Amino acid sequence: MRLPVLIFDIETLTDLKSGAHLYGLDLPEADLDAALTKLRRQEAGTDFQRLALHEIVCISGLWIDEKGMKLFSFSREDNSEAEILKKFVSIFEKRHPTLVSWNGSQFDLPVILFRAMYHGLSAPSLFDQGEIDTQKRYNNYQNRYHHRHIDLMDVMAMFHGRHFQKLDDTAHLLGFPGKRGDGGYHVPEYVQNEHWLELTSYCEGDVLNTWLIYLRWLLLKGQLLLNDHQHMIQSTIQYLNTQPQHADFLSVWQQTSQRTEFTQSDFPSLTH
């Protein structure tokens, strides 16, 4: 495993102001969301809004290096969207981590690109493709087949859209918590009600599931030996024991680990 590693995920809402500007809508704010949803259904047959209209309300990450691991979140509790983006892209100015995501190539990174441009930000360390650093011609964060950014959903589907899987389903299949029995998307109500801990815990939960799947991917590819894989799993469990906001994640992981033969040893005390 090439250190440092950064597993990341974002949470978004529809940017009503930009949507009104784009479509020339003069409506009360309370009516804009429904109007934009209707327009999106008409033009694309889906409620999923175009990427440029996804306003970022949280970016969470798990940083792993020689010193250990650390979870973090930048959210709208204390930051504007521009401030969230500035903090996130500044990471790449200092270090050049292996970036790991689930569907990050098709969603998270393009949204970050659009929203950074919207706010007039510069992020060459993340988006340079060799124009500044010639080495990035051969290994940058945007190229689908490079290894600086690993979109697990894409690589595990062998780059074939028909084989794409949901993060929740894959995590459950492999003996990890997934969404912990809650398939609902609660981000809008978390933001509306200022439930910031719930928002960051939700986003960090996706990061943790992605990390666990990444470890299994490295084991499959021979980039982690079995003993090293088991060590990283135990290190993750020990770290989560210090994170009270993820007590539920750890508890559900203990239960789901017993559903596959390979993961039963993740929590040795449960096998006796």
Automatic annotation (TrEMBL):
Sequence ranges assigned to domain Predicted 3'-5' exonuclease PolB-like in this UniProt record: 46-253
Q: Which UniProt keywords apply?
A: Exonuclease, Hydrolase, Nuclease
Pfam families cross-referenced by the UniProt entry: DNA_pol_B_exo2
Q: Which domain of life is it from?
A: Bacteria
Q: Which InterPro entries match?
A: 3'-5'_exonuclease_PolB-like (IPR019288), RNaseH-like_sf (IPR012337), RNaseH_sf (IPR036397)
An example Gene Ontology molecular-function term: exonuclease activity
Q: Does the keyword Cell wall biogenesis/degradation apply?
A: no
User: Would I find Nuclease among this entry's keywords?
Assistant: yes
Q: What is this protein called?
A: 3'-5' exonuclease
Originating species = Acinetobacter gandensis
